[in-house]
Amino acid sequence: MTVLEKVDANRAIEAAPRVADYVVDADVHVTPPPQMWKEYLSPQFRDQAPTVETVGDVDYIVFEGQRKQVHLMQSQAGRKTSEYKNVGKFSDMRLGGWQAEKRIEDMDRDGMDKAVLFGGGPLQTGNLDLFFDSFDAFNRWQSDFCAHAPKRLFSAAFLPTVDVPTTVRMMHEAKVRGDVAVNIPAFPQSIKNFTKMSSIWQAMTGDVGGERQYRDAEFDPIWATAQELDLAITFHLGARISRYKDKTNFLPDVPMGKTAMLEVVSIMLYGGVFDRFPQLRIGLIESGVGWIPWACEYMDRTWEMQRHWTECDIKHPPSHYFDQNVYASFISDRIGIELRNRPGCRNIMWSSDYPHSETTFPHSHAVIADNFRDVPQADRDWIIAGCAEKFFGLG
Predict the structure, then answer these.
(1) Which InterPro entries has this protein been placed in (predicted)?
(2) How many domains does one find in the chain?
(3) What CATH code is carried by the domain that includes residue 305?
(4) In this structure, what DSSP letter does residue 18 have?
(5) Is 135 contained in some domain?
(6) Which spans in 42-113 are helix H?
(7) Tell me, what's the pLDDT at 143?
(8) For the whole model, what pTM was predicted?
């Protein structure tokens, strides 16, 4: 056995000292076990649910005739960075990923008072009906998870955008469940290019080169419903996918995924979405924030110079919409905090990213202390709690 194989991700961790009295974690994750699908899918699909097989030191998810190794980048909490590994068993993951009582214990250890949960979303299937049903199954499972501690855990539902009326219906269902946000892919999904192979990326990224765009009037019912229900819309680090299984390309991919989120906003912004729906709130989750002031300054200048011939008749400079309609979360971003008073960077939120490989757990308050050196307490408290409460409506 190697040293890595002996690591216990669920080993006891002593509670860390706090540096702030109240923290709202704007982005954490769940890692639901495959066994949950059999319970939460609609009855006609339950016999198609994934199962798990173990071969040696690796668990495999068996689904629709394929066997896939369990990859652990989604759950490295409880390990030192020198102990990270990519493939293993569900027993290599920290239990707080799918056991709510263990999640609360870890939040207490790490000094987190509230947290907004995002998950893995739907099944990778070429069956469109099963694909849609798995969104609903996942969302209900995650809402039930949050119901264990409804004053501390809050769910962000994952929704498809293949069909706008379906999206709108699911937004209403999310609101009834008590979910505080709905997450949609960075670009609209496309039936034309829908396959089993592409389905999981369609769920996160959508169809990047597709004909549909969120500036189109087709999607206005989604934005209108978000305003009507006072429901936040999120995009979760999906404009560019990191090749998390590829040790050669993973590191170059990671920073590109952050700034790529600008394209999502730009399409909506220049397309007049925020003029048509001024109360709409969108969140760029896990995007980082240090790049936003530069982007706003550049966008303001180029819009002033190019708006006439492009016939871009939005009512305000781009930075206005960032401060009015756009929120963004980061994990550790000292530069973004230093630029917090620049146009476009006022609505920023801190997160721990538990239990993913970028997580600050179990040292979140130490990271907060380092990131907020010499920052006035009022500014710090806005970024580590107040902004997320406003965006997600937790107040």
Answers:
(1) ACMSD, Amidohydro-rel, Metal_Hydrolase
(2) 1
(3) 3.20.20.140
(4) P
(5) yes
(6) 100-110
(7) 98
(8) 0.94
C-alpha to C-alpha distance for 105 and 160, rounded to whole angstroms: 32
Residue 170's alpha-carbon distances to 86, 132, 135, 141, in angstroms, are 34, 10, 9, 15
Structure-block tokens of residue 57: 């030191």
On whether residue 17 sits in a domain, the answer given is no
Q: Residues 76, 68: contact at Cβ < 8 Å?
A: no
Question: Percent of the chain having pLDDT more than 90?
Answer: 80
64-73, 225-234, 256-265, 353-362: segment of lowest average pLDDT: 256-265
Residues comprising the chain, all counted = 395
> Hey, what are 285's tokens?
């989750």
DSSP symbol at 169: H
pLDDT in tens, 135-149: 999 999 999 999 999
Residue 327 lies in a domain: yes
Per-residue confidence (pLDDT) for residue 249, from 0 to 100: 64
Domain residue limits at 218: 23-49+93-392
Residue 231 forms part of a structural domain: yes
pLDDT digits (tens, 9 = 90+) for 90-133: 999 999 999 999 999 999 999 999 999 998 789 999 899 999 99
